[in-house]
Amino acid sequence: xxxxxxxxxxxxxxxxxxxxxxxxxxxxxxxxxxxxxxxxxxxxxxxxxxxxxxxxxxxxxxxxxxxxxxxxxxxxxxxxxxxxxxxxxxxxxxxxxxxxxxxxxxxxxxxxxxxxxxxxxxxxxxxxxxxxxxxxxxxxxxxxxxxxxxxxxxxxxxxxxxxxxxxxxxxxxxxxxxxxxxxxxxxxxxxxxxxxxxxxxxxxxxxxxxxxxxxxxxxxxxxxxxxxxxxxxxxxxxxxxxxxxxxxxxxxxxxxxxxxxxxxxxxxxxxxxxxxxxxxxxxxxxxxxxxxxxxxxxxxxxxxxxxxxxxxxxxxxxxxxxxxxxxxxxxxxxxxxxxxxxxxxxxxxxxxxxxxxxxxxxxxxxxxxxxxxxxxxxxxxxxxxxxxxxxxxxxxxxxxxxxxxxxxxxxxxxxxxxxxxxxxxxxxxxxxxxxxxxxxxxxxxxxxxxxxxxxxxxxxxxxxxxxxxxxxxxxxxxxxxxxxx
Length: 485
Ligand code: NAD
Ligand code: MN
Prior knowledge:
CATH superfamily of the largest domain: Aldehyde Dehydrogenase, Chain A, domain 1
CATH class of the largest domain: Alpha Beta
Distance between the termini: 63 Å
Number of domains: 2
Structural class: alpha/beta
Strand order of the largest sheet: 14-15-16-13-12-17-18
Largest sheet: 7 strands, mixed
CATH topology of the largest domain: Aldehyde Dehydrogenase, Chain A, domain 1
CATH architecture of the largest domain: 3-Layer(aba) Sandwich
Number of helices: 15
Shape: globular
Bound molecules: nicotinamide-adenine-dinucleotide, manganese (II) ion
């Protein structure tokens, strides 16, 4: 099948970059332990860079075992008083944190985009507002735990060790810290190596909110920092979001200990388009499903399943839309696709795309000029993909979509479920009955219908199979942080 390149638009957008002169990053960041910024016992630091420019933004501390131990001791000490506070008092702190996140939203959005590479319109309109909303939402639960579980008494579990990835740094922090604190636990949180900065700004926010010392401790660092948390005997619960491989390692390590565990891991989610779907709307949804945050999204709709009868015209529309995507400076308000988070991740994406070509799938990339410095990858769609191809089976975590076709709803379900993962799915159809039938048969924690990548603090999120277990968000998100008697 010949692939026609759609014509370029006849006009260009003028640059519209966010200003960065209204806040100042510190040159070097210490660890946040027991309410203070303190130098790491390790005496080690690492640079966090801007992946769009490769410039160093700041040096952050690398916490070692001794540092993690200090953090856990601070959290343990704080637990004695924090867990005894009336829920309404804990709620007040969480509401205050939510308000300060809103007040500092612009600074947080810009730092998130600089540290991780995501477009400013996403950090500004999605990451930061939803992070604030999580604190607001769980603040509302703090004084209702007595009634939330009829005939049962709810008490906090203790010190939670929380390990998060680099794709939604502040948002994943909020998903983890807000329910833990609402339930009366204290936390030690470890941000990802490439995106520590908004967690350190959050530490300042905890000080601003006069949160009691030790309730939140932030240990920046590397994988050994996370491993030290997993191994620490006085952590009661590990909450992990990240890759399936590290999730399996953590599950093995905590097996046979008293530690509780929740895992939010990878995905290979299917976005399924039926022939009766409103096609232009579906194209927007497929684009959002795979190119939002450069495809660095655990629930990315990375497998497009399109009904065979409309596959050719649908792919034409999709390619035409892809040619309009603006790739470039994450701080430009018109940018649709920002920088790939790291050189390592870019390498991974390139290897997968090579494998797709070698295994015989057909590639389309619109012509687009990529900046000279930094880490970039153009939006990419593969057609003629078979279920055995690596690009159909493995999580790429980049702006790369693999297209398969189906004829009947049964075949769509069989193909969508033919994966070790089970995080999310999307259905595009005009028929309500089709949506309900599909949702019942899809093995996925979240099923979106005629939309994709919608997040809300009131709605639980989590996976089946190798996508992990446990839910974050909503009433369900309280469970991992409570002992129910
Ligand atoms: P990763 O597993 O490499 O790292 C995640 C975190 O774990 C980082 O903070 C890292 O430093 C830490 N870590 C690494 N090795 C460790 C070890 N041995 N012990 C303890 N901690 C360790 O994953 P990543 O590359 O940062 O993130 C991308 C992955 O995260 C993708 O697979 C994606 O699907 C997944 N993810 C899942 C969700 C979800 O909610 N299900 C959300 C976002 C990302
Ligand atoms: Mn960075």
